[in-house]
Amino acid sequence: MHPKEKLPSEHGALHNQRRAPRRTVDLRVNNGSRELETALLISQALSRHCTLDDLIVQTLDTALEAIKAEGGSILIADASAQQLVLYRAVGEKPVLPGSAVPWNHGIAGAVFQSAQHAIIVDADKDPSLPERIDKSTGLVIKNLVIVPLKRWQGEPIGVIEILNKRDRPIDEDDVAVLTMISSLATPAIEEARLFEAKKLAEVAQMAGEMSHDIKNLLMPVLCGAELLKDELEELFDKWSIRKTPESEKSRAMCHEVLAMVEEDVRRISDRVRELADCVKGMTSQPRFASCRVVGVVEAVFKTLDLMAKKKGVALRSTGLDDLPALDADEQRLYNAFYNLVNNAISEVPSGGSVTVLGAVAKTANVLDICVTDTGRGMPPEIRDSLFTAHAISRKSGGTGLGTKIVKDVVDAHKGHINVESTVGAGTTFRLILPLRQVKTGHS
Fold this sequence. Notes:
- With 443 residues, the chain is of the alpha+beta class.
- The chain contains 9 helices and 13 strands.
- A 6-stranded antiparallel β-sheet has the order 3-2-1-6-5-4, sandwiched between helices.
């Protein structure tokens, strides 16, 4: 045999040795092409969208497509509340945006705090996974990867969670792709947040100016009401010689309307200021004092009585007289019930009713209060969005701000609120309010 000739087995071994590096190179090229393709997709997607919500939708959709996963979510950090807020979820039964978890809670919190990704290849065999159902997507977790949402260099602003990759196990190549998506999307998301914060600041400034202007415009109304009251008193005194049941009824109604105008002018001024604070995302500290719910609801009914009668809607209360006093900010409590009753009146057809029912819960020192109407009810998408950052209003020009104020009032009192509603069967808002507020060392 010629010295340079190789046995078949030797030739095959050498051929395999030559091919091994080639396969590694091919794999790297494929991975590189995948990353380049994904970079192109996310860049194109982000360039077409400028609102924060649109950017987050495109970021998550691109990530799911790149990893070939069933679902996932994006959570953004709220530094003031130290929470991760859900902005987008995709899955079998995804919850609506606005729900939040403490940013040091669970695997997502650990990824956010450490700025390091986490992988669970097989959820059945991983003891670090406390729950198999992902609350944000409704999916049964089979595998998952969570990466911090951040620039190449910088602190995380949130996390991207990807669930249930379909074709093969999650690996570090998937992490590389998601990291690239994260690093490209984060600057765009940060810019959109800054832009929206700037817009919000402009709206807040305008709201403050409007509050000042409205207060000035209301003063002549208040003065005019007082002058009209004096004039009417003088006229009724002149007519007193011919006093009749009709004239006395007319006199009482004039007094009632003028008293309502005077009271509402003062409340409107406070309410506009509260709306301005709500837009700013700021509220003053609540002023707790002993307060009776029955008095608050009676004041709301008194203000809205004429409007309710004009629509043919009855305003009723049950069990409020028996409720004990609670520690509450009366003005804020008025705003909450005003919003709930006012909104209910607009939803109830003529002949219907709005009822406020109260009871003392037997198992805790709390008041259980329901505002129930016989209106048209709400579809699930509107009902489920209430009290979230993405509340939907079906009123023309509505903003959903009223329900946010209600939720803020309940939160300020350390209470709870939920809603039950079915289309065609009315709506019930249930408020649970503690009787006593725990005083802190700062109060």
